[in-house]
Amino acid sequence: MCIRDRIKRTNCARASLEELLADYRDFLRTRNMRLWDKDSKEALFVRNLGHGTNVTYETYSPFVETRPPEVVANIIICLVHQANYLLDRQLRRLEQDFLEHGGLRKRMTQARLASAATSSAANAKTTDPWSWVSQAPFSSWLHLLVP
Question: I need a labelling partner for 72 at 20 to 30 A (CA). Which of 35, 91, 108, 119 fits?
Fold first, then answer.
């Protein structure tokens, strides 16, 4: 998959997470439930859970499966923010790669231009009508023609 398509798909994933985030915020707002501040002790606890190795659903399941809807919605909001952060980093890297290396079309064009330059250089060498004289086996008997 070319870099341009990866950027588009990553942006699509990012937009989908933004919609999910809005839905969970609406869930809390319409039920008059508290939205955790990003630096609240609860949000920091959830964020720290993600800093471990081999983090899976099981890492969060004791909290998601046993807490009231307000807490679960806030946990999911924290996780969406973490996923958005990672997607933003990935997008920056993809954009950097695109700027440094170009997309597939640019690389293909560069390859075609390089091939054309090589071909034209090879053709320029063979435009000399006497170029065959310097090539073997003619070069081996050339000294016989020249006094």
Answer: 91
3-state secondary structure of 97: helix
The C-alpha atoms of residue 21 and residue 12 are separated, in whole angstroms, by 14
Tokens of 27: 């869930």
Q: Where are the domains of the chain?
A: 3-104
* CB-based contact 9:97 (threshold 8 Å): no
Give residue-wise pLDDT tens across range 49-96: 988 888 899 999 999 999 999 999 999 999 999 999 999 999 999 888
Cβ 84 vs Cβ 76: under 8 Å: no
Q: Would you say 80 and 69 are in contact if contact means Cβ atoms under 8 Å apart? A: no
What's the whole-model pTM score? 0.68
